[in-house]
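Q: Predict the bound structure with flavin mononucleotide.
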Amino acid sequence: MSIIVAYHTRTGHSRKLAKAVAADIGADALDIRQWSPGLKADTLLLFGGIYGGKSDAPMLAFARALSPRDVRRAVLMTSCASGKDRQVGVRDALTGAGVAVEAEEFVCPGGFLVFRMGRPNARDIREAVDFARRHAVPRKA
Ligand SMILES: Cc1cc2nc3c(=O)[nH]c(=O)nc-3n(C[C@H](O)[C@H](O)[C@H](O)COP(=O)(O)O)c2cc1C
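A: Predicted complex:
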């Protein structure tokens, strides 16, 4: 069961969460810009933020370009100031590309301007690690 941890970030929060999760499972955290065509994973743990209500264009382009031959299943892990927004565009892009996406999504607050300062904090990181441990391997039906 191979797992890849990848992220796209503007302000470092997704990288911080991805690095903690990657360290916990003994993997590296890859910036999506480091993705190379030969990479393959049973599970991709994919971290990103929300900007103006949406995922960033490079993240959407990355998701659209994946195929089920590269990634069998993706798990979305999100940080955003609201603490509630999801990576809807990324989910749609992956689904459209034929990549299965875990229904449950990890979402935690990520500071922006004066909102949610200091987040993700140590507790958010622990929760991300717990979520990744529970979802890195598909659950049996
Ligand atoms: C330009 C910009 C726009 C943002 N717009 C939103 C938004 O619409 N909704 C939201 O919940 N958070 C918004 N945020 C907050 C980010 O989603 C949050 O800081 C997240 O943790 C950023 O992740 P990153 O550090 O990995 O880039 C915005 C942040 C920036 C920099």
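A: The mean pLDDT is 96.
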